[in-house]
Amino acid sequence: MNIDPTSAIRLSSAINEVEETIDQAALRTTDLINEIINTRVTYRSHEAAVYAQPALKRAQQALAQLSAAQDEIAHSHAALRNAHRVVAGPEHPTCPDAPQKVFTGAELQNA
Known about the structure:
By secondary structure, the protein is mainly alpha-helical. Helix content is 71%, strand content 0%.
């Protein structure tokens, strides 16, 4: 069964968009972390400064989760690429009955 080429294009576009979105979210999160730290340093003696550490910890956890999401999307991208190789590869109507001998060059050493 042949897969519609537009399906592959839609999948490729969607996964690239997700990867870009996660990258942008990670960049914005690092901007937030930077801002929290700068504000905490500037207003260290202020009574509200005690809330900076929990906020920083939460932002760092969010960044770690974004990193985990990037990893999962990368695995998904690889799986889709492998599926594309199977679908786009040449058809093999039959499999050989026995493994064929492959010349590896080791035979020359024994000659």
